[in-house]
Design goal:
Its EC number is 1.14.18.1. The chain is of the alpha+beta class. The chain is 28% helix and 18% strand. It contains 21 helices and 20 strands. It has a seven-stranded mixed β-sheet with strand order 3-12-11-20-19-14-15. A three-stranded antiparallel β-sheet has the order 10-13-16, with no helix packed on it. Strand 6 and strand 7 form a beta hairpin. The C terminus is likely disordered. Bound molecules: CU2-O2 cluster (CUO). The site of CU2-O2 cluster has 8 residues, from helix 8 and helix 14.
Length: 687
């Protein structure tokens, strides 16, 4: 109930077995003092039973309650992070699930719904007694962060007029935020994709930067993963740009210059009853002084943070609060820098290095109202669920990535000891699929998403919406391997793709190409002595999660007919959306290099048990409660400079490359249900 209809009080909704919550008297806020009548009126006799909520000694909620109930919530704003940190703490500290339920039913009526949802999600993810509890995908609870608000007017009409069961899906507008006059619009299908934005929100949910309990933040290599996951987003975005005749994204590195790209999000917050503010083309970020958000910071401070960061890289050492210097070593340097840059509580010296990346988001998101004189909230860059919609997101993160690359350039290129796999030869690679040999086929696809949970104070039932997104035809990698070691061996297979040329058809210099490598898959395989043929399906990618998981619909549950196999699927919402695995390509065929490397698993392996964990999208998301499942640097072998002039010069016998083509067909097909997902009807009584 806490994830359904976020602003509709939990005691007005029916849960399992048609039951309703009965709160202790002191839990009802003033406006709901008449609540016992409400329950009777609303549910009459069909509420079979009431669930009494335990009356507990309420903790001090004054800090999280400072955020206005109908306001916005941003993880990038330090004050909001502190409030959330406190609330997470409270939720984590509850003795058992009954106490947690009790405090939640109190908070749900008083705490900002966005913050409440975030903190409860983090707590459920991390409490031992709530592992495996279902939470609906964020897009169902807050569809207002993902789709054109026109949908909600239609949905209200539909829920009030058309009986449940006869409702037709409502089309969601795509490509509605700008016209063809705006060149950036050509990649709006990527920026505004619901799955892409859900992935980003989920990543930041799984990897919070702040909590009173450091264990929630301190996950294996989380700083490095911050660098790598966002680096991959930039690679993917640049590839999409080349396919659409746009040059690679320009870094936003001069904070005194106007930001050329404007963005008009055309989103409404249903909680705040406000439109998300736009940013006009040519806006320059300004010094911020917003007492309401406890923000007072000058642009020059952002520059100072940047300079200190660069200095740390140049000297390969970090200054600690006590003045001591610590060396950035090859093994953990990137992880430290990731936490310093983001920043998180794991930053070695937050006072000195500041909060560079987060404050960049904040400066940009308040550029339209830096001193709050117009009483405006932040723009889409201020929220991890919406930031990727804005072209400036990629300009900012390109710069962030560039700074990380400064560090990577300091490292010595990998030697043969790291690159070779003696006795193993990759004799051939190819791609097979309906689009043809060595061809990736792409097109548009129409899928449905459930909105019913996100519609407060409307009649119950399913409301489906249709949205159009990129899709590729399924394919299989076929890799021929000769093993001359004379015995069986275990190998890690790494598969990357990179553009060969830019938007003008000019070949990419190798150093740029290796930094443009998109990870497509990584898996372990056993090789027999002699010849082997490895066949790996695109749907099994370690980067992506299936559509059904991106849009996890709780009305199918593990064990139900047509439900996903894994009993853990609810928590595994982090993962690149599978429909975005392959860039769009072009009608004439966009050439890409497909690269495969086999490395010695004995050198890559991490000893751990993976039973019952979400481990199928580990490349960008890691594995819940486990170590990152690969000992090598993320992005290996392309994360460091390479002393070769071309990809073919770089090749070792245990690697191979194949030129492939991405061919786009401008047709829209309904989703083919090769995997179980959408159910036609959403039934709020099933959990
Ligand atoms: Cu994910 Cu800037 O960190 O958005």
């Amino acid at each position: 109930l806490f994830f359904d209809r976020p602003i509709e009080p939990c005691f007005m909704q029916k849960g399992e077995e048609q039951a309703v919550f009965e709160l202790p008297d002191n839990y009802y806020p003033e406006k709901y003092k008449f609540a016992s009548n409400v329950i009777a009126n609303r549910f009459g006799n069909d509420a079979n039973k009431t669930i009494p909520v335990r009356n507990i000694a309420l903790p001090n909620l004054s800090l999280p309650m400072q955020l206005p109930y109908n306001g916005q919530f941003s993880l990038f704003i330090p004050k909001h992070r502190q409030m959330a940190g406190r609330l997470i703490d409270i939720f984590m500290g509850m003795r058992d699930v009954e106490d947690l339920t009790s405090i939640c039913s109190f908070c749900q009526l008083r705490i900002n719904p966005y913050m409440f949802n975030y903190c409860l999600s983090v707590a459920i993810l991390h409490r031992p007694d709530t592992k495996g509890v279902d939470i609906p995908t964020f897009a169902q609870t807050f569809p207002d962060k993902f789709v054109d608000p026109k949908v909600f007017r239609k949905a209200r009409e539909v829920t009030n007029v058309v009986p449940n069961g006869s409702r037709m899906p409502i089309p969601i507008n795509v490509n509605y935020t700008a016209s063809d006059l705006e060149p950036e619009q050509r990649v709006a299908y990527f920026r505004e994709d619901i799955g892409v934005n859900l992935h980003h929100w989920h990543w930041h949910l799984v990897y919070p930067g702040e909590a009173a309990d450091p264990a929630i933040v301190n996950k294996d290599r989380r700083g490095e993963l911050f660098y790598y996951m966002h680096q991959q987003i930039i690679c993917r975005f640049n590839a999409e740009r080349y396919c659409n005749g746009l040059s690679r994204v320009r870094r936003y590195n001069d904070f005194r210059q106007p930001i050329e790209e404007g963005y008009f999000p055309k989103l409404d917050s249903q909680v705040a009853s406000r439109a998300w503010p736009p940013r006009f083309s040519g806006t320059t970020i300004r010094d911020l002084e917003r007492p309401v958000d406890l923000i007072k910071i000058d642009v020059s401070q952002l520059e100072t943070m940047r300079d200190r960061f660069v200095q740390a890289i140049e000297t390969l050492s970090v200054t600690l609060p006590n003045g001591r210097q610590v060396t950035l070593d090859e093994e953990t340097g990137i992880d430290t820098l990731g936490n310093m840059m983001e920043s998180t509580i794991l930053s070695p010296n937050r006072n000195y290095y500041g909060d560079f990346h987060n404050m960049g988001h904040v400066f940009i998101s308040f550029a339209h109202d830096p001193d709050h004189r117009h009483l405006e909230q932040f723009g889409v860059m201020g929220d991890s669920a919406t930031a990727m919609r804005d072209p400036v997101f990629y300009r900012w993160h390109s710069y962030i990535d560039d700074l990380f690359q400064l560090y990577k350039y300091k490292l010595t290129p990998y030697g043969n000891d790291k690159l070779d796999f003696p006795g193993i030869r990759v004799s051939g690679i190819s791609v097979e699929g309906t689009a043809g040999t060595n061809t990736f086929g792409t097109r548009w696809e129409e899928s449905t998403v459930e909105l019913g949970r996100g519609l407060d104070f409307t009649p119950r039932g399913s409301v489906l919406a249709k949205y159009t997104h990129l899709q590729h035809e399924d394919f299989t990698y076929v890799i021929d391997v000769m093993n001359t070691t004379g015995r069986g061996v275990m190998a890690t297979v790494r598969i990357f793709m990179a553009p060969i040329q830019n938007e003008k058809g000019q070949p990419l210099p190798f150093d740029e190409q290796r930094k443009s490598m998109i990870e497509l898959d990584k898996f372990t395989t056993s090789l027999n002595a002699g010849n082997n043929t490895i066949r790996q399906r695109s749907v099994d990618s370690s980067v992506t999660i299936p559509y059904s998981r991106t849009f996890a619909d709780q009305s199918t549950r593990p064990g139900d007919p047509g439900a996903p196999e894994s009993a853990e699927f609810d928590f595994c919402g982090c993962g690149w959306p599978h429909h975005m695995l392959i860039p769009k390509g072009t009608a004439g065929g966009f050439p890409v290099a497909l690269f495969v490397m086999l490395s010695n698993w004995e050198q890559d392996r991490i000893e751990q048990d993976l039973v019952g964990t979400c481990n199928d999208a580990a490349s960008y998301c890691g594995i819940r409660d486990r170590r990152y499942p690969d000992r090598r640097a993320m992005g290996f072998p392309f994360d460091r400079p390479i002393s070769a002039n071309s990809l073919s010069d770089f090749l070792r016998p245990n690697m191979n490359v194949r030129q492939c083509t991405i061919r786009f067909r401008d047709v829209t097909l309904p989703r083919q249900r090769s995997e179980p997902t959408i159910v036609s009807e959403y039934d709020s009584t099933r959990r």
